[in-house]
UniProtKB/TrEMBL annotation:
SMART domains: DUF1237. This is Glycoside hydrolase family 125 protein. Pfam families: Glyco_hydro_125 (PF06824). InterPro entries: 6-hairpin_glycosidase_sf, 6hp_glycosidase-like_sf, GH125. It comes from the Bacteria. GO terms for molecular function: hydrolase activity. Keywords: Hydrolase. GO terms for biological process: carbohydrate metabolic process.
Length: 426
């Protein structure tokens, strides 16, 4: 799905930058195999993307898996068609149910059908996550700016964008305005919401509430700060598209106002004065005075703030937060004989995620750190040559998920960033 000449040039750049033939070959193979393994062009021109080993399409994962291809698609029209097809399928799903995070290829009723929420035959899972709605807007903006193609922003985009703005506005006051409820009756408390599906009590902050994290685990305090940061960024993108493409001043104004509310909420509620690190970002807050200092391997995370575009990699508050996250003060930071990095409550203790290691490299201002992390990724595949979800910091042969498309994509993005390959944003 990627032009062989485009891939050959990119691989040569990775080889030059890393001086490592194994890393270059892992990059070449992942880029050549990753997208064809998960993407299916449908008769209507859209593209359905499997989320690794699960037969459903997650809004978040399907966009995140495309990030390295976005860096190379400017000179590859056929690849652009595939990526635009992914966007258009995402937009159709958003209109079907903006609260859902994962969808079926067709309305076959597959998925978590016993969950107590408003399911439909199209929906695989209905865990509402604010970041699920950020990714299609981010993908639309990047494709529009990179390709300059008029067919990126079509009628589907406006309907989906209006649904997203409406939902995020409602969820600013979840307690009084939200119709969303979710319960799952299994043995994992992180799979369900307390208070008969409403989640823990929150008070409005200006930010928009989220039921679940990017890990698909339930939020603890309701307002996920990195998710709201990403929402702020993409609302800026939406304002730009609404103004320049859609010529819709009302939508642009709504996006601008909501972005201002969220930014104010992050400033007032989303930061904490830490006795050692100074002013840092919290991972979650509830508007009632509680805050959670941690980070999760899944993106958007606090570590990935520069990737979402909310703050630069050298921003003082980000750097202070980063120092805290990459230390034992983050309860999900693990260090062992083979690796150190951020894991997740979604996986066993002492398991670091390849995604988090890649994000650590991409968000670094140090070429030496990027090189070190690429070599660490190379050496912790458990002999498979593939990225995994999490792996044991003392024994990389112990891991979760044999093959994880999103993690492979993040490895490739880190390799491209290290090689100085950037998106051709116009």
């Amino acid at each position: 799905m990627i032009d062989p000449e485009v891939l050959a040039r990119a691989t040569a750049e990775v080889r030059r930058a890393t001086g490592d033939e194994v890393i270059a070959e892992m990059f070449r193979r992942s880029m050549a195999e990753n997208l064809p393994a998960v993407a299916e062009r449908l008769p209507d021109g859209t593209t359905f993307v499997l989320t690794g080993d699960i037969p459903a399409m997650w809004l978040r994962d399907s966009a995140a898996q495309l990030r390295p291809y976005l860096l190379l698609c400017a000179d590859d029209p056929a690849l652009q068609d595939v990526l635009i097809g992914v966007l258009h399928r995402q937009l159709e799903y958003v209109v079907l149910d903006p609260y859902a995070n994962a969808f079926n290829r067709e309305p076959n009723g597959a998925g978590h059908t016993t969950d107590e929420t408003e399911m439909s035959p199209w929906v695989w899972e209905r865990k509402y996550e604010i970041d699920s709605l950020c990714f299609p807007l981010d993908l639309a903006y990047r494709l529009w700016r990179t390709t300059g193609r008029a067919d990126v922003i079509d009628d589907r985009f406006k309907a989906a964008a209006e649904a997203i703005v409406e939902l995020w506005t409602i969820e600013q006051d979840h307690e009084n305005r939200s119709p969303y409820r979710f319960q799952r009756h299994d043995d994992r408390p992180s799979d369900t919401l307390v208070r008969e599906g409403r989640g823990r009590l929150t008070r409005p902050t200006g930010m928009s509430w989220s039921a679940f994290r990017p890990s698909d685990d339930a939020t603890v305090l309701g307002f996920n700060v990195p998710g709201n940061m990403f929402a702020s960024v993409v609302l800026g993108y939406l304002q730009e598209i609404a103004t320049e493409v859609l010529r819709d001043e009302s939508l642009a104004d709504r996006a601008k106002a909501l972005k201002a509310d969220i930014d104010d909420g992050i400033a007032r509620h989303g930061t904490v004065d830490h006795p050692e690190h100074g002013r840092v970002y919290a991972y979650e807050v509830d508007g009632l005075g509680e805050s959670l200092l941690m980070d999760d391997a899944n993106m958007p995370s606090l570590l990935s703030i520069p990737l979402s575009g909310y703050a630069a990699a050298d921003d003082p508050t980000y750097l202070a937060t980063r120092k805290l996250l990459l230390s034992p003060e983050n309860p999900y930071y693990y260090s062992g004989t083979h690796a150190a990095g951020i894991g997740s409550p979604h996986t066993p203790p002492n398991y670091v995620w390849h995604i988090a290691l890649a994000v650590q490299g991409i968000s670094s201002t140090s070429a030496r750190e990027r090189q070190r992390l690429l070599e660490l990724l190379r050496d912790t595949t458990g002999g498979t040559g593939q990225m995994h979800e999490g792996f044991d910091v003392d024994d990389p042969s112990q891991y979760t998920r044999e093959w994880f498309s999103w993690a492979n994509a993040m490895f490739c993005e880190l390799a491209l960033v290290h090689a100085g390959v950037h998106a051709g944003i116009r």
